[in-house]
Hints:
By secondary structure, the chain is of the alpha/beta class. It is about 35% helix and about 15% strand.
Amino acid sequence: xxxxxxxxxxxxxxxxxxxxxxxxxxxxxxxxxxxxxxxxxxxxxxxxxxxxxxxxxxxxxxxxxxxxxxxxxxxxxxxxxxxxxxxxxxxxxxxxxxxxxxxxxxxxxxxxxxxxxxxxxxxxxxxxxxxxxxxxxxxxxxxxxxxxxxxxxxxxxxxxxxxxxxxxxxxxxxxxxxxxxxxxxxxxxxxxxxxxxxxxxxxxxxxxxxxxxxxxxxxxxxxxxxxxxxxxxxxxxxxxxxxxxxxxxxxxxxxxxxxxxxxxxxxxxxxxxxxxxxxxxxxxxxxxxxxxxxxxxxxxxxxxxxxxxxxxxxxxxxxxxxxxxxxxxxxxxxx
Length: 335
């Protein structure tokens, strides 16, 4: 990569703040764009040798072909997931793809627990009441986490941190992963089991796994039916792990006790935007928001100072390594 020019997409003020510092240290110039990268906007990368993108940028074959024609040699994802990139197309075009595999597992795991505590203890509802000088406690009954069974689906770095936090609450922690970590589990008192057993025995199920063809709609009508009646579902991973229509039906029937989401399968064009003056066009999201036992945040689990600093540092390190011909760290490369 002969120059130090980077086109930066879907930027928000916090991106600019943290990446400007990292870019200055790395002697890389940035063109910040607030719009997303797609086939329709790819020509805006003219003059750049690399592009930096986020979860809702869409790098399909058409987009990548245009980038290749413009001389772009590197796609730098400032996130862990890469399901929005056509990997086969990138390989065929000679475009390398890198990511930030573990910017802050604590940030996401802690947000998962915060969502559960807020939803279970009705803290958001109590906050609104008190601001209106309503100090009644009716309808605010929750349950103790101590002694409950929590199922962790996916025990990568985030899932392991979440499991350790729940153990600190005195929970029985079950786990399921295609590649278990038995030494870690033995050290922390976590029990690996089958998905069927985890769903049947858990009072809380929390998702911490990537989106792949095999995990798409992992939570669907069939898997929900196997869950304990009244159980809570938490998702801070990828929206398409969960079939929205199925959880709506499970909420309406009372089978699900509560749902907390930081991601949504059709979040593109909604999350990260201020739509307060508009009519929400997504009927399923609007229906979800109408349930008193549903809590939704707009993909903010990563949003801590520590995580933003690490995202900027690793992304710029990937770019500089590529520019200077230094081998990329294996865990950062999208195969």
